[in-house]
Task: structure prediction
Amino acid sequence: DAGVIQSPRHEVTEMGQEVTLRCKPISGHNSLFWYRQTMMRGLELLIYFNNNVPIDDSGMPEDRFSAKMPNASFSTLKIQPSEPRDSAVYFCASSLDMDTYGYTFGSGTRLTVV
Amino acid sequence: KNEVEQSPQNLTAQEGEFITINCSYSVGISALHWLQQHPGGGIVSLFMLSSGKKKHGRLIATINIQEKHSSLHITASHPRDSAVYICAVKETSGSRLTFGEGTQLTVNP
Result:
């Protein structure tokens, strides 16, 4: 398995533009997580899906952020409109059973909003 | 006070030294994770612990549930061990991970 695949690896966009980050979890994993990492706040959970259903979105900063998981093999995190303070590395992780097998992280998407 | 605290924040060692990184937490947990993040940013899961001790190569992780404390040890450290080591806990209630701020380890040749 190729692991958790995120795209793009890097994204530079202008303030106000829509940004879409993509994640393909490991096949068979039933949980998917979106995390954000900044220097100031470290790693933070944004949203968590189980069996494609959003379970905990309390970490989503505001209405400009939305996440979807239309099927078991694909998820998107969208920011519209983007702002410079959204600049961060966004990680996707998936898990088969969080308490038994832990998590596998993707390589991250480094987002820069100018 | 953070729910997960790591110490030290920064650690510099000479190649070959034995290294210990500590993690203390204040909530009830079902599991504790040690993660490694290299320059360039990729995150690798090293260990998941709910009790006792685990060993993988030169890495050893221990947890004391009663004391709410975990340690990550690296024996015979090597420059390639230079990375940020992050402790994260999964609370008993819920599914989210709460992360420590990380320990930046630099191993000099």
Summary: The first strand of chain B starts at residue 4 and ends at 7.
